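Readers of this paper often ask what the protein records in our data store actually look like. Such a record has a labelled line for the sequence and another for the backbone structure tokens. Nothing more is needed to write down the fold, since each code stands for a local backbone conformation. The remainder of this section carries one protein's record, kept here as part of the documentation.
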Amino acid sequence: MTITIGAHVDQTDPIAEATARDTTVVQFFLGNPQGYKGPEFRYSGGADGLKADAKKAGIDLYVHAPYLVNVATTNNRIRIPSRQLLQKHVDGAAAIGAKGLIVHGGHLDDDTDPTIGFDNWRKAIEATDLKVPILIENTAGGDNAMTRHLDRIAAVFDAISAASGSENVGFCLDTCHAHAGGNALETVVDDVLAITGRIDLVHCNDSRDAFDSGADRHTSLGQGEIDPDLLAAVVRDAKAPVICETPGAADEHVADFEWLRARL
């Protein structure tokens, strides 16, 4: 079994970044991950040029939505701009021929009924023209997070299943987030597949922090708190493309790829 392993890179020239890492899959932001501005295309050939050049080079592109997107919240000043930003980034991802748009699950204020957040996810899917699949990612922290714990992930996907367009909603499994969020890596692939029926992408990251710490701090593979065999087993069992969101540039990422391949 061959699993494609790539990395999160700068968007200025993803083709060159992929080549430097000897990979055929990369992920990047389209613009500021901490801002509400719409997508920016920094590739010299623009969106059309990137789509054409990536196809010619045989490179699969994934886009990560801004961290600020929170379609679950009851705060209108966050939820409404989040929905608009989600649509803009779906459109941007489609313009470059991306395979998917990764979106965090979001959260509610601690005293808010979580069922409201689940239904807000349904409404967001109904309201979005999903020109590319969106891949909801599990998150590491927060007491009222939508996708930290398995029961919440199940409730989100149950709500989304009633929405038109739900077939274009997939899942991105982050190993650091699962570990820090308190989900056993020994069973997390089977647990997620039982809920969602699919794992479309794996973010393979080691964790600087302990199990169930709630801390989202990635580190290089083999340098953190996750058992190496468990990390490799998640990747092996998920049978999906892999993105390493680990520190460093091309050389460090290649070392992560080699570390992982040696254990698969």
In short: The mean pLDDT is 97. The radius of gyration is 17 Å. Residues 76-95 form the longest helix (20 residues). Residues 33 and 234 are 27 Å apart (CA to CA).
